[in-house]
Design a protein that fits this description.
With about 180 residues, this protein is mostly helical. Helix content is about 65%, strand content about 0%.
């Protein structure tokens, strides 16, 4: 499903055509006019599609297709999908914030909560013993970057992977480096 978020309107229409939902050119024209793409698609509802100008039948068919998506969840659970949809090598705070803003525009102004959610999820992944080495390396690097932003270069760039894994010890590490 991660590729779906990158789909243009035309790619989404091709996908819907392949599902044989009995949609016609008039239905697809509404999607084009409203610029429905892969980012918007998972958040569509039957009511929203009718509001956009689709007839009830096509709106129901598209809505049922949205419901079949494996990660179709509400906002309270939806943000976690970022970590499922995109490969760890692409994870970044900026990318996550942009993705949340595009999926849930009404939450765009609450950057502090979005950032907090991102980093809290990284801490959870970091502490999960079942996480792969690849994911753990990415998480560690992202948490290290966070510490560099928070503490600047006050640690002289001497933040080890071990101290990044233990954020409570990070401040002590910075203080030790400053004394040396």
């Amino acid at each position: 499903m991660s590729a779906m978020y990158k789909w243009s309107t035309e790619e989404l229409i091709s996908f819907l055509k392949s599902k044989d939902l009995r949609l016609d050119d008039e239905d697809f024209q509404v999607l084009r006019e409203k610029k429905i793409d892969g980012v918007i698609f998972p958040n569509l509802t039957e009511e929203k599609l009718i509001e956009y100008g689709l007839k009830r039948g096509p709106a129901m068919m598209i809505s049922m297709e949205v419901q079949k998506l494996p990660n179709h969840l509400s906002l309270s659970h939806g943000k976690i999908n970022y970590f499922r949809l995109f490969p760890p090598s692409q994870w970044s705070l900026l990318d996550f914030s942009n993705w949340v803003s595009s999926c849930w525009p009404s939450t765009a102004e609450d950057t502090r909560k979005t950032n907090q959610f991102f980093f809290n999820t990284l801490y959870i992944l970091r502490d999960d013993p079942s996480v792969s080495t690849e994911v753990l390396d990415v998480v560690t690097n992202l948490l290290t970057q966070k510490k560099k932003v928070l503490f600047g270069d006050s640690c002289g760039g001497k933040i080890s992977k071990e101290s990044a894994r233990k954020p409570t010890e990070l401040l002590n590490t910075c203080n030790r480096v400053k004394k040396d």
